[in-house]
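New to this. Please check this protein:
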Amino acid sequence: MKPSDHVRCDGFPCTDITTARYAVPGIDLDPAKVKILMISEAPPPDASDDFYAPGEPFYLQTTLQAFDEAGVSVSSMDDLLRLGVYITTAVKCGKTGYGVSAQTIKNCSELLEKEMGLFPNIQAILLMGDVAIRAMNYIARRQIGKRIIPSGSTYKIRRKEYSYKGVRVFPSYLQTGKSFLIEKSKRAMIAEDIQAALALLD
């Protein structure tokens, strides 16, 4: 099964993105083997840096480093998939500015919701950064009538337990790009969140 065959944007209604960088993972995988959903922010400006790009894409390298700092020895996307980790983005098109509007996150959350529905055995969801957290809350409002992650600084809320339809949800920090390499305190918290998610697996 390829997620890109099942998740498509109709009409591209958002105004603060570049459709040239529209990306839904096109890898072929067994959806039943996915146990952890890691939701990042948006595709990188350069397609060669994307998680599933060939070679050593930058977004994958910082993600692999995050797992390494969590005590998990992985060196490729295949290693992550064998662990049961599937990585995607909350926003499916590249950003044109630093941030993303609430409307864009809401629009894309409908695509993310469809994508999440492809995986029947999810046991943990890692929300990597504010955009992923907001997207998850939009999905929760539609599905269960309320947000699941409260407002507030991530470092203040991340140690509490949250769930969505019986699945543990971890609000965390963005694990991609240069900011990850610079902010050591956030890297430590990301490592803790990855460890906690992996500890839930059967």
